[in-house]
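Moderator note: this is an archived Q&A kept for reference. The question asked for a predicted structure of one protein chain; the sequence and the answer are reproduced below.
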Amino acid sequence: MSTAISETQSNDGLARLLQESEDCRLRGRTTEAERLLGKALTQWPDSLEAAMRLAQLALDRQDFGRAIELLQEACQRNPDEPQAALDLAVVHLNTGNPQAAVAVLEASLARTPEFCNGWLLLGQVREALGDELGALTAWYQAITRARRAGWWTDESTTPPQLLDAVLHAVDRLRRGRRQLFFGCYDDLRQTYGASELRRVDRALTGHLREWDSTPSDPRQRPKFLFFPDLPSSPYHDPFLQPWAPQLRAAFPDMRQEALDLIRQECALPNFIDFKPGDRVENVLTGEGPQPAWEAFFFYRHGKRFDENHARCPKTSAVLESIELCRIADQAPEVCFSVLRPGTHIMPHHGVTNTRLVMHLPLIVPPDCALNLVDAGEHHWKEGELVMFDDTFKHEAWNRSTSTRIILLMDCWSPYLTPVEKQAVKRLVETISGLQQADRMPNADDRMAAPQ
């Protein structure tokens, strides 16, 4: 009780000094205001507000050295409060020291990467220093982080004092996206050599439509990114994955955990996240009483479903022991895929051939199949792995009267090198980050991020 009272009195004392100093400032008694703030800072050295007010008074009388000293101390005592770092960077800029401003911002953003204003200013300073790629990288962070949080999507969500800077950043990203995309894995090129990234470069220039990267096989049509020079085949040997034997050996445990879930009759979400206006019949049809494609997700778009892992601990342990394709907001995608009786998944294409799809059939009634169009049907057999390239047109069906369950997971193409996997991960995250920003609601043409 006495400690709480003491803390309350202490806070009241600080608040009183801050108010008194503000009253003095408003009456033009700046010397007295500074004295009171100095007293407050002596008694409460961690007070960010006292330090920043005192720094502002020092700036008002053009004592830049004192302002820098105060803000540096504030940053050291409050490393997770990025506004002090931003103010310090601005003072460095105004005193002709942009390199110091960059150093302050970079150190602060390493601790508080969600501070969009810091990224925005860092982009401006880097641009002024001639570091074009560094500026684009900072602006990418600023715009994508802000828009994921619902900010800077249009003029109503952008503070007026930032509007011109935000518009400039969006415009520069639109015009500089090629440099940004190549730059996101440039350090790998410097480390491993240009020849190790040749195929990634070729995939990127194809994505940018600098050449026609349409696959020669008319059955293969990636919806997002085609990586050339990989073996082009609908089906692939699952044991090209070094962890395939481990996955197959886990079949009995995974099957039992899937059976337990079905017996509990727990509600499962649809595998496809249908949106208002979507025509379900374009995705699912069938003669069953309630055609449905459902999923018990372990990972979805890279997000881990901890509760589901806890409910199936043996399956979880195996998944966490093997290489998963990890791409922010994209992968892994791992689930018990549940196809209800009489359901037909209509023909469709996947997004990229840098990832393949692995199936471990767990519960397979008769008359169930995966069909890669014009490449042949595959009739699942319980416990037998199958791996395929889902950028080839494919469909699946369950024409039985029982539920079919498989472990479905995406995985890296085994034909990619470790360095290529790193580069593709960065490239996809950068491209999709900009696309996500552009999909934010209420964004008008001026505020739209580049595709």
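Archived answer notes: The first helix runs from residue 2 to 26.
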